[in-house]
Design a protein that fits this description.
The chain is of the alpha+beta class. It folds into two domains: 130 residues, no CATH class; 72 residues, 2-Layer Sandwich (Alpha-Beta Plaits). Helix content is 56%, strand content 16%. Strands 2-3-1-4 form a four-stranded antiparallel β-sheet, covered by helices on one side. A hairpin with a 3-residue loop joins strand 2 and strand 3.
Amino acid sequence: MDTTNFSDIFKSSFVEKTAVFSLTDSLIGLGAAFLIGLFIYYIYKKTFKGVIYSHSFNIALMIMTLATSLVIMGISQNVLLSLGMVGALSIVRFRTPIKDPMDLMYLFWSIVAGILCGAGFIPLVVIGSIVIGLVIVLFANKIVVENPYLLVVKLDQDSAFEEVEHMVKAQAKKFTLKSKSIIQDFEIEATYEIRTKDNDAKLVSNISKLPGVRSAVMLSYDGNFTA
């Protein structure tokens, strides 16, 4: 017959798990994750080529490295906890759109660095981060992006459409007719995707002066188009 003594009443599984917890290893892993996150923060800030720099996104990269490292440290000690953590994290959905592929790369870099730091592969994450950082610094300033534009032209006459297309063909590097709409049988709206030469403002000005053209507008184009 089993008997319960006084010490069994105060026995706690939480205390037992704390006994196997290594404070030194955790501090080393978190310290490495912080330094790698700081390195990612610096690389992102120095190589950012967009118009609006998001400081909060850059901070999130560093925090994500630390948070991922914490998760890996926690689930590495318990198989059941790892399965529960996978199930809990699988319901998380991120609604913030990532339009720049480089931002997605930085997110992936932060997550991978956090996983390696939490798993104890600190030399690997240090070497890998240095190599990735050097590649970004070397090639970020050498990438020349030709931003496409959308040229929206409104015409009163169908005959002016051929003149507009001829002028676009003569003054643009590349062009593609994305849509052509007839509004109330008397107004035509044509939308072109174009890659301009040096003086793109002159193209809009010349098209606006054509007879039969009511307006010409050029917009920056990120690759997404809805007719």
